Amino acid sequence: MRPEFTSPFTEIDRAEWARLAGETPMPLTEEEVDSFRGLGEPLDLAEVSEVYRPLSRLINQYAIATREMHQRTRGFLQRNGERQSPFVIGIAGSVAVGKSTVARILRDLLARWPETPSVQLVTTDGFLYPTRELERRGIVHRKGFPESYDRRALLRFVSQVKAGVEEVRAPVYSHLVYDIVPDEFTIVRQPDILIVEGLNVLQPASMQHPLAVSDLFDFSVYVDARVSDIQRWYRNRFLHLRESAFSNPRSHFRRFATLNDEAASAIADEFWNNINEPNLVENIRPTRARATLVLRKESDHRVQKVLLRKL
Ligand SMILES: Nc1ncnc2c1ncn2[C@@H]1O[C@H](COP(=O)(O)OP(=O)(O)O)[C@@H](O)[C@H]1O
Ligand SMILES: CC(C)(COP(=O)(O)O)[C@@H](O)C(=O)NCCC(=O)O
Known about the structure:
This protein is of the alpha/beta class. The chain has one domain (9-309): 3-Layer(aba) Sandwich (Rossmann fold), CATH 3.40.50. 38% of the residues lie in helices and 18% in strands. The protein has helices spanning 14-19, 30-36, 45-77, 99-110, 131-137, 151-162, 227-243, 261-284, and strands at residues 9-13, 87-93, 119-123, 168-174, 179-188, 193-197, 219-224, 293-297, 303-309. Strands 1-9-8-7-2-6-3 form a 7-stranded mixed β-sheet, with helices on both faces. α7 crosses α8 (261-284). The longest helix is centred in the N-terminal third of the chain and has 33 residues, at 45-77. The radius of gyration is 20 Å and the shape is globular. Adenosine-5'-diphosphate (ADP) binds at residues 38-39, 93, 95-100, 175-176, 241, 245, 253. InterPro entries: P-loop_NTPase, PanK, PRK/URK. Its EC number is 2.7.1.33. It is found in: Cytoplasm.
């Protein structure tokens, strides 16, 4: 008889999860929470305290345990002088699900633990091919799909940080001009924790790419929500961006700044239906089961359920 399929995750509801913060202090002020909040997200102190404080405690436990495992391995190899390699966290999920907010909160909370004062955050958009190269490959309308990234460069970058290279540079993407910024870099200098945030960070290895960046993660988070909710968040954010980013004369989307709600919603839905939802369904969501932990958001953006990998 075939064994029953069992979920690799333990499910924890919000109330139980909130209790798991234990004695972890709640160090953030209202102003700090404001500064992490993404456009259109109702993040507040209660959300940080009940969802992200327990998560920061759990990741701290993983970081301590991983450090000990590395020490034991170095002891076994009789290479005790070697440097401790950073703990690497991946954060995945759809466009407009709020990954950047989760990443910014974790960067701040994790840096408050005495074991990991230096936490650096990098988003994978810097590893998108520049528009010129997307054009050459005929994939301009596939931005955000796995093939639109220089996966080798991303893997090289994370490998070098993990190997303890003193200074490693990541290219920078501008949402405003919708392209890579020439000669601008984020410099990563031997952090205790590196957070890598992006749509496709949990993609598995393949014949063509035998090692994936996800193979270098010590912990990963998938930010999850219903597709219909994410579409609504995407549309609302697009409407909001008309008054801010799109009004900037340098914005790639400046032609949308003067559209009324109806016309702008139609454009947002077109982007969603042609690019972002297919990418979510075909590439991103299938990687959810590979995460260490899934944060499940309800339609008000609040996390109501946490899934933690048990196998
Ligand atoms: N067209 C745009 N112009 C300016 N900022 C944008 C644009 N699209 C997205 N952003 C910003 O870029 C960041 C990343 O967005 P996204 O990739 O959708 O991930 P997420 O919403 O999961 O953080 C967010 O802070 C978002 O507000
Ligand atoms: C830049 C992105 C591909 C996300 O990059 P990430 O940092 O998640 O790798 C995405 O936010 C985006 O702009 N997608 C293009 C389609 C759109 O504008 O909706």
